[in-house]
Amino acid sequence: MSKLIFFDTETTGNTEKDFLCQIAYKSGNENFTGLYKPPLKIPPEASAVHHITNKMVADKPSFKDSGDLPKIKKLFEDKGTIVVAHNAPFDLIMIKKEGIEPQKFICTLRVARYLDPEEKIERYNLQYLRYLLEIEVDATAHDALGDVLVLEQLFERLRKKLVENERLGDDEALEKMIEISGHPSLLHTFKFGKHNGKRIEEVMRTDKGYLEWLLEQKLNGDGIDEDWIYTLKHYLRK
């Protein structure tokens, strides 16, 4: 039987150059939260999101030196484990830097997009979905453990909807979630920039140069943009 581990990281930023400063997970009745001193200073814009300051981690060990790494690595990499995260590709990159590479994962963001083919949901970030779906959890937003508690409830909602929509058993739904999570999402609508609200196929016809420019920005940036790179290449047939 698969073991689900819901986890979240708080980091120095949202690019490939950043590092974790907090990790939290929940597995059954076990909760864990650890705070660490990252190799980079935590910039104020990151602290403004998760409220972790350089002063708070000044006397903390690095994750590698904390003693927590071997336990978490063994737990996350076990062949019976499925790790669950929201926008999992980002969190997986952060823990891969620390030497942790889970065999199976579920990304609740990609599953939420899959279950919304008409893109009726305005945004897919965790806290937006928390309030949209009226998930009642006593959890502080952008605190790693608080986000994990919301994540667990979101996961159950998504699995239930997948079971209902596609008439799957619970285990089949789990495998479907892994399958959906394993490849980038194909996006259909711009929700930012000068073409906000427009279908990407429409922009392809009227402003192909913008898509080419955006793809170049995504490819050359240090953000984690698998879904957008996949989408733009799809429409540009590259």
Automatic annotation (TrEMBL):
Q: Which GO terms of the molecular function aspect are on file?
A: 3'-5' exonuclease activity; nucleic acid binding
Family annotation (InterPro entries) = ExoX-like_C (IPR046768), Ribonucl_H (IPR013520), RNaseH-like_sf (IPR012337), RNaseH_sf (IPR036397)
Lineage of source species: Bacteria, Candidatus Nomuraibacteriota
What keywords tag this UniProt record? Answer: Exonuclease, Hydrolase, Nuclease
Q: Which Gene3D superfamilies match?
A: Ribonuclease H-like superfamily/Ribonuclease H (3.30.420.10)
Q: What is this protein called?
A: Exonuclease domain-containing protein
- Give a yes or no for keyword Transferase in this entry: no
- Domain Exonuclease: from-to ranges: 3-164
